[in-house]
Each structure stands twice: as C-alpha cells, then as structure tokens.
Amino acid sequence: MSFKLLEHATDAFIEITASDLKEAFTLAGNSVVETTLDRDAIEEKEERIISVAGKDLRYLLFNWLEEVIFQIITEGFAIHRFKLDIKKKLEYEIVATAYGEPIDLQKHHFKVEIKAPTFHLMEISEGKKVVMRFLLDL
Amino acid sequence: MSSLIPKKIGNMTYKIEKDEALGMRVPVVIYADDQLLEKMMSDRTIKQAVNVSTIPGVLQNVVVLPDGHEGYGFPVGGVAAMDAEEGMISPGGVGYDINCGVRLLRTNLKEQDVRPKLKELVNDLFNSIPSGVGSKGAIRLSTSQLDEVLVKGVPWAIDNGYGTKDDAEVCEENGHMDKADPNKVSDRARKRGAPQLGSLGSGNHFLEIQKVAEIHDEEAAKRMGIEQGQVTVLTHCGSRGFGHQICSDYLRISEQALKKYNISLPDRELACVPNSSEEGESYRKAMFAALNFAWSNRQMITHWTRKSFERVLKQSEADLGMNLVYDVSHNIAKVEKHTIDGKQKSVVVHRKGATRAFPANREEVPKKYRDLGQPVFIPGSMGTGSWILLGQPNSMNLTFGSTAHGAGRTMSRTKARQNYTESQVRKFLSDKGIEVKALTRDGIVEETPQAYKDVDSIVNVSHELGIATKVAKLVPIGVIKG
User: What is the least distance, in Å, from the CA of B202 to any CA of chain A?
Assistant: First the structure.
C-alpha cells in the first residue's frame, strides 16, 4: 500500500506522505479504492472524467474523497488509477481521469462500504513533503 | 487537563464539573462502571463530551452512556439536549448514519425448528437482501417514488406490500416522521439512496437469527411476545448512502453558517446552526427524510426476511408469527418535552449512538406498550449476545430518556485483521453453533467478537441505574453481514 493506516478503534485513519499535492490527492483517491476493494484486481477497461472543487485544501480533500466513494459505490465504477491535475483559481479544483471497470464484488474482493469522509483529525501540511491525515467513517 | 478527570458522584456515575475556562456551559455526566470509564479515558470520549458542553443552548448536562467511545465531534454514546428556541441543531450530533437503528422480529419457532435448515435459511436470507453497491439494488425507484418514501416512511412500504399496519404501530414514530421535505435533499443524496433502499450495508450492520437465552422480566417479555428458547430476528442498519450524504451536505452548510450566527466551536465536526434558523429547519426536514428512508429500509428487509422464512421453513407468515416487536433509532435528533430545572421544556434531544428508552405513560410510546414502557434493543457483537430492555422512569431523570446502543468496538479493524484470521473467526462461531454468511472476508474478521466490549457490562449499568432494565438476552445462531 502506498499510504499508511494509523491506529483507530472504529474507522480508517489514513496518513499520506507525498512529494506534492497532485501525488497526495492521487494517493488519497487510491486509499479510498483500497479501503473498499482490492485495487490490484481492477483492470483498466474504461475511463471517466471526475472533477471536484473546494474553497480550501481541506474542503477539496473532503469533496474529493466523497466523489471517489460516490464513483465506486453509487456509480459502480471500480478505479485502478487516477491521473489528476489541481488548479487554484477562485477556489481549488481537481480534474481527474479515472481508469477502471464496472465493479464486481467477487473479482474485486469487496471489503467494506465507506460511509463518508470526515473533517475529524483532518490535517494537511505542505512543507518539503505534503503530509495529509484524514479519517473515513466505516 | 485535570478538569477532564471525572469525579465519582454516585453508583456508576461520574461528573466533570462545568469549567468556564474550557468554555463549558454545562457539566458532563458519565454513566459507567470502572472498567468502562477506564476505556473511555483511553481515547477522546471525555474530551469530545466536554466540547459538546460548549455548544450554545446546551441544557442541564451532556450525557455519556456506558458504551461511550470516541466519535467525530460528538462522542458515540452521547446525548445532548439543546434549548429548542435558543439552542442549536447539529448534523454531527446525529451522525453520518442518520436513523441507524435496530428492529426485532419475534417468531413462533423454537431453535429445533430452525436448526436443521439453518444453513439454507442463512443462505436464502443472504441472497434475498441486496448489497446496494453499484446497480445491485433490489427495486428500482423513480424520483417521485423516492419522494414518496422520504415523505411517508414505513406507511409507503406497507402501501407497496412490504408489511402490515401492525408493523408501523410498533415503530418509533410509527415509522413516519412528519414534515420531512425531499426538496431539502441534494441530488447526490437521492442518487446514493435510490439503489440502496432495502439493503443492509457493511461495517457493523447485520441481520441475526437468534434464540432467547435468558428471560429477566417475565411480564414485559410476555407483553412483547417473547419466551425462553424462541427464535427471533434482529436487524441493525440505517439510512445507507442517503443519510451519509445528507449529513455531509449539512455539515458543510452548517460550517459555512457559523460565522453568520457568530458561533465559535472547538471542533469543526460539531458544526451547528440555530434550531429555528433557516439552515436548522432545512437540516431537520432533510434529516427527517433520512429517518423515513431508514425506517422504510428496515421494513423492506423485514419483508424479505419473512418471505425467506416462509420459503425455507414452508410455513405461512401467519403460522410463523413473525411480528415486529419494536423498531428503535440510535442516531437521531428530535424535539421532545423534558423537565429541566423543575420545568417542562421543549428541547432538541441529540442521540448519537444512543437509544430512546422512554418509560410507561409517555405519549410517544406506542399504544401497545404505553402502560409498560418502551422496548429497547442493545445489540452486542456477532458471536455474543444482544439484549431486550425496558425503558424506566430514571431515564427521564438521568439521560433525557436514553440508554446505550451497543457494545462498541475496543479493538481497531487493523488489529483485528492482524490478530485473527477468517478461519479462526469462523471456527469460533461454528463451535458456538453460529452459521455466518458475509459479503466480505474482511467483514467477518473485523467484526470478530473479541473486537468489541462486553455488552453485558454495558447493559448492567443501564439496569442498575434504573434507566432501562433487563427483559431478555438473545444469542445468535445465524448471522448475515452485508
């Protein structure tokens, strides 16, 4: 796994260390996929464009995590890989291409349905490395 | 912070006095035994309860119930009553899974009637209840049909053949919350909800076939149609992605409105708005839609459960006697009348991981139980047991008419996966005669009984303090996990 799962009694508490924001948000997307499915079992048969915005980085992260959950659980799209770009205009924006295939609970070894991202314990720090911590309600 | 150390003030009762330096407006009172308190002290439960005590309009004291543990903003197992006129309503005080709750079905069956066909029954139930992931919904709802569910709740399910009038009569609020407004619900919540009506969901949600192992209150058990050795079915689930999205939507709206209402909070997950504000009214109407969704969700699962029993046991629904005992929510906020400082007052009671436990003679208790008290269900972990309790007068004196909602995790999912394997957990369950069927391998391991607190000790606190008292203990014989 390319992110770290921190100890938490009830939910998925995730820490990401990345060289820049783009990599950090890519890993954050991967962490949602890997919490829900076995990412290695997903083939890249289709691609979809996903875009989200947020007034600051915390909102951007919350909205991005929510969008990935929506794509997997509601749209039934199992995502193997994200290619994304982050822009800052009036607010932050992510435009991403997601590569994957229709969800198959057996093939993709469905693990758990994430209820929602949360702001609880959310941290984003930008220094030499970008470090993000966030908690997914299971 | 020494002021965060609770002081024992009575039997199983601890208090943190109001400390204005921390912004506390009221004290925090904790109901727990020594071990349960120790567990709460090991995470942020107490700190979060103290944070809740800083919310404008919070009255009397914040309550932490014996199953209290760290949540987001509010602790899980927490109750807070806000002044309905001058206080707040908080999406975080209800939680992401709005109207997550429990319902219990009785049957005319004994264990020996079910045991020979248990595996078949568990498989049939598992196949009858959809996962709600992707397009795997059980029914297809148009926008207007979904609106009907959101407005009507369980009566919609009954009108559409998913139950009988008797079912609605023994649901909290008769399974229908008035003034729900689909117009206050986002398109995204609708999209997430439409394919998930009638699905269990994963995590700690389950459907359990049980037997009545112990009777502690003969009269109350008899009134609920419960007897020793009988088979019961307990369902634990909520409003699925529909409620999760409403919580997220209104958390954002509330947080953005904090400045407008000049509210300052120690934790952004506590985001709240005045109960009587436009945003407060909108959240309430959307949250009520999620209450109706969740009650309908459990009602549909009940219908499929009955059909499954009919099919496998080759008996009619009437012969099986699969009546609903009660359905109760444990993530909810409602305006109720409570006595505060000797006066009757309308308050917004937030129950986050807390079950209403009203005593006899409250008008909210269904007619069938009004002279008895409200049935309460506290599910344990999948290998141990669950309890039927009865709401008692002390709940009104101590906990705003509430008691605990479950065992509560004590071991992380990661640790559970590190410490146990699927085959170990399956063997542990099969040694106890429990048949289990789960959608996910991890679901079984993560829900291993050892990952949960002892539900009996939680129930003992409620019983000893006369909040809600023991009626019967149920132990599982079959478990279905989403």
Answer: 6
Q: What pTM value is reported for the model?
A: 0.95
- What is the pLDDT, as a whole number, of residue B455? 95
Whole-angstrom distance, CA of residue B68 vs CA of residue B76: 5
| CATH number of A69's domain | 3.55.10.10
Q: Hey, how many other C-beta atoms are within 10 angstroms of the C-beta on B160?
A: 17
Catalytic hit among B69, B236, B405, B463: B405
Q: Rounded to an integer, what distance in angstroms lies between the CA atom of residue B67 and that of residue B50? A: 17
The answer regarding whether domain B101-334+357-481 maps to CATH 3.90.1860.10 reads yes
Q: Which residues pair with B123 in a beta bridge?
A: none
pLDDT grade for A8, boundaries at 50, 70 and 90: confident
Structure confidence by residue, pLDDT tens digits, A72-81: 999 999 999 9
Q: Which of A11, A105, A118 sits opposite B269 (nearest CB)?
A: A118
Separation of alpha carbons B2 and A137, rounded Å: 30
pLDDT per residue as tens digits for the range B305-330: 999 999 999 999 889 999 999 999 99
Q: How many residues does chain A have?
A: 138
| A97 in reach of chain B (CB within 8 A) | no
Q: How many domains does chain A have?
A: 1
Residue numbers in A near B44 (CB within 8 A): none
Chain B residue with minimal CA distance to A5? B414
Whether A28 and chain B come into contact, CB under 8 Å, resolves to no
SS (H, E, C) B425-453: HHHHHHHCCCEEEECCHHHHHHCCHHHEC
Q: Does the model's ipTM exceed the 0.85 cut? A: yes
Q: Structural domain of residue A99, as residue ranges? A: 2-137
